[in-house]
Amino acid sequence: HEGPEDALVKDFPLQLITWKGKNRANSTQYANPWLIEVQQQTLWINPQDAQKRGITHGDMVRIHNSRGICEIPAEVTPRIIPGVVAMQAGAWWQPDENGVDKGGCANVLSSARITALAKGNSHQTMLVEVAKA
């Protein structure tokens, strides 16, 4: 689906990936305050990519593509490679009055196309851009 060879990379140069976190099973326990203390919903971004965009650790960032918009805090970390950003899977969709997701739900950025092998959603193939909110 979408990747670095895609023409969309001109407008959306970052590859968004998601991971399974330690504080919930998919979306189960998303709203549990004790488990939110364990790990908050943030966007991991490499220091090089953050610097290019004027983003510092803790800034609210807008992750967007042609399908949707999320706003969550940035976690600037060298633990993710340049050109890739990441957030934990399973966040609830929490739209504001303008439809901007404030929960960090990666599904608002993913395609409705299914994968060839598993016939599931293509949540690891999202091209996005990130800016300070």
Automatic annotation (TrEMBL):
Biological process terms in GO annotation: anaerobic respiration
What the entry lists under Gene3D superfamilies is as follows: 2.40.40.20
| Keyword tags | Metal-binding, Molybdenum, Oxidoreductase
Cofactor needs: Mo-bis(molybdopterin guanine dinucleotide)
Which organism is the protein's source?
Salmonella enterica
Cellular compartments per GO CC = outer membrane-bounded periplasmic space
Q: Does Oxidoreductase appear among the keywords?
A: yes
Tell me the lineage of the source organism. Answer: Bacteria, Pseudomonadati, Pseudomonadota, Gammaproteobacteria, Enterobacterales
- What are the residue boundaries of the Molybdopterin dinucleotide-binding domain, all occurrences included? 14-125
Any idea what this protein is called? Dimethyl sulfoxide reductase subunit A
Q: Which SUPFAM superfamilies match?
A: ADC-like
Q: Which InterPro entries match?
A: Asp_de-COase-like_dom_sf (IPR009010), MoPterin_dinucl-bd_dom (IPR006657), Mopterin_OxRdtase_prok_CS (IPR006655), Prok_Mopterin_Oxidored (IPR050612)
KW Metal-binding (keyword) present: yes
